[in-house]
Design a protein that fits this description.
InterPro entries: P-loop_NTPase (IPR027417). This protein has 396 residues and is of the alpha+beta class. It is built from twelve helices and 22 strands. It folds into two domains: 143 residues, no CATH class; 245 residues, no CATH class.
Length: 396
C-alpha cells in the first residue's frame, strides 16, 4: 500500500512538458501530460475557456503514456463496473484513491476526490486521449451539476447574444443551429448541440458548454448546399484530425460525401433517415467557418418546428409562463447516457430544485418565440436574426 501511495505522490510533484488549464463557470482543470498529441486533441475536443489561474473548484489531471509500475496486479479480483457508455471496467480503493480499470481502452485511472486529483495511464496515446477527455468532461460537468441545469437544446452566440433552439427530436434544432452558423460565420460562436448547462443569477441566465459531437442527417445536409460542400473526406484533417482519435467514429470516406445513397429519395424520407453524420466541435467550426465558444448569456429562446412540406415561415410569441413550462420539460433530469463512473459528488435535491426554480423565473423574462418553417432554412434563420436585432426595441 505504501509503495502505491509513494508512487502517486511522485507523479503529482513531477514536472511535465505539456500542460494547460481550462475552466467552465467556477470549475477549472489543470491538465498535464508527457504527450503533446493527447493534450492537443483534448483541447480541440473540449472547447472550454483557457485560463491562467485556478477557479474556486480546481482539479489537477495528469495523463501519462509511460509508467514504471505494473498496476495489473492491483486489479486482480476487483469489483466489475460499467463505465461511460457501457464500457466494461473494474474498481478498487487505495487509501483515498479510487482506482478504475477500463477494460476496453486498457487505461488505468486513479481519482482522489478529496484532493481533486486524477491520474490516467495508458501507453496507447489514442486510448489515453479518449479516457482523458471523458474524465475531464465528467469532472467539470459533475462539479457544475446542481448549480447549473442541463438543458436539451442547441445553442450558439452572435454579437454577444446567446440563442438556444429548444424542442423534441426532429423539431429542427440542429438544422437551424448549423444554418445560423453558416450565415454568420466568424461573427458567431458554436456553443453546443443537444445539451448545454444553464445557470440563473441576478443578471439573467448564463450558458456554459457541455462539449460533445454534433449529429446531423442527410435531409439537413442536402438542404444546405454550403454545408454539404464541406462534407468531404478532407474535413477531418482540416479540423485537426481529432475524429480519427475517437472510438466508434464513422468518418467520411466517399469522395462525393456522406449519404449519397439517399440523395434522390423523396424529401420526407431524407429528413427522417435514421443514420446521422457525427462531427467534432472543431469539424463544426471548420465546416461553418465559425468559432468555438465556451459561454454566453441567454438572450433569445426559439422553439422551432420544421416541416419539409411547409411553404412559409411563421412566428408566434410565447409568453413567459409558457416558455418556463416548455423549458422545464426540456431539463435533462435523468442522465442515463452519462453514468457517474468516477463516483463524483452529486447535487443535493434541495440545491437542484432551487436552481430549477431560479432558472424558470429568469426564463420568463427572456424573449421566446415559436417558429415554424419548411426546407428554406435561410428564411427561417433570417426570422431568428430579425427577432434578435429587434430586442433593443422591446418585445415584438
Amino acid at each position: 500500500m505504501k509503495l502505491e501511495l509513494d508512487f502517486f505522490s511522485h507523479l503529482l510533484v513531477d514536472t511535465y512538458p505539456f500542460q494547460f488549464r481550462i475552466s467552465n463557470e467556477d470549475t477549472s482543470v489543470h491538465l498535464k501530460s508527457d504527450s503533446l498529441e493527447v493534450l492537443a486533441h483534448t483541447r480541440a475536443y473540449l472547447h472550454y475557456e483557457l485560463t491562467n489561474t485556478p477557479n474556486l473548484y480546481n482539479w489537477e489531471f495528469i495523463a501519462l503514456t509511460s509508467c514504471s509500475m505494473d498496476f495489473e496486479v492491483l486489479f486482480q479480483g476487483a469489483e466489475q463496473k460499467n463505465l461511460e457508455y457501457g464500457d466494461p471496467g473494474s474498481t478498487i480503493h487505495i487509501s483515498s484513491w479510487l482506482g478504475i480499470r477500463n477494460h476496453r481502452s486498457k487505461s488505468f485511472i486513479f481519482v482522489n476526490h478529496k484532493e481533486r486529483k486524477v491520474i490516467l495511464i495508458n501507453s496507447d496515446e489514442r486510448s489515453l486521449f479518449v479516457d482523458t477527455y471523458k474524465a475531464v468532461r465528467q469532472t467539470i460537468t459533475s462539479e457544475l451539476m446542481g448549480r447549473c441545469i442541463p438543458l436539451h437544446c442547441s445553442s450558439f452566440s452572435y454579437g454577444g447574444q446567446g440563442i438556444i433552439f429548444v424542442g423534441d427530436k426532429g423539431s429542427g434544432k440542429t438544422t437551424l443551429l448549423v444554418a445560423s452558423l453558416l450565415q454568420k460565420g466568424r461573427l458567431a460562436s458554436y456553443l453546443g448541440n443537444d445539451r448545454i448547462l444553464a445557470r440563473a443569477d441576478e443578471t439573467g441566465v448564463n450558458l456554459y458548454v457541455w462539449p460533445t459531437v454534433l449529429g446531423i442527417g442527410p435531409g439537413a445536409i442536402h438542404n444546405m448546399p454550403k454545408f454539404k460542400e464541406q462534407m468531404l473526406p478532407d474535413l477531418h484533417d482540416r479540423a485537426g484530425g481529432t475524429a480519427r482519435w475517437l472510438f466508434d467514429q464513422e468518418l467520411i470516406t466517399e469522395p462525393e460525401g456522406p449519404f449519397k445513397e439517399v440523395e434522390n429519395l423523396e424529401r420526407s424520407k431524407q429528413w427522417n433517415w435514421p443514420q446521422k453524420l457525427w462531427l467534432t466541435p472543431m469539424e463544426v467550426a471548420a465546416s461553418c467557418n465559425t468559432n468555438l465558444g465556451h459561454r454566453s448569456g441567454l438572450n433569445l429562446i426559439i422553439y422551432p418546428s420544421l416541416n419539409p412540406d411547409a411553404k412559409h415561415v411563421s412566428v408566434e410569441e410565447i409568453n413567459g409562463e409558457q416558455s418556463a413550462e416548455m423549458i422545464n420539460s426540456n431539463i435533462l433530469k435523468e442522465l442515463t447516457f452519462y453514468p457517474n463512473w468516477m463516483k463524483l459528488p452529486t447535487p443535493h435535491t434541495d440545491v437542484w430544485n432551487n436552481s430549477v426554480a431560479e432558472l424558470q423565473e429568469k426564463v420568463k423574462k427572456i424573449p421566446a418565440y415559436k417558429i415554424t418553417g419548411g426546407p428554406d432554412t435561410e428564411a427561417v434563420v433570417n426570422a431568428v436574426f430579425s427577432l434578435l436585432s429587434r430586442r433593443g426595441k422591446g418585445r415584438v
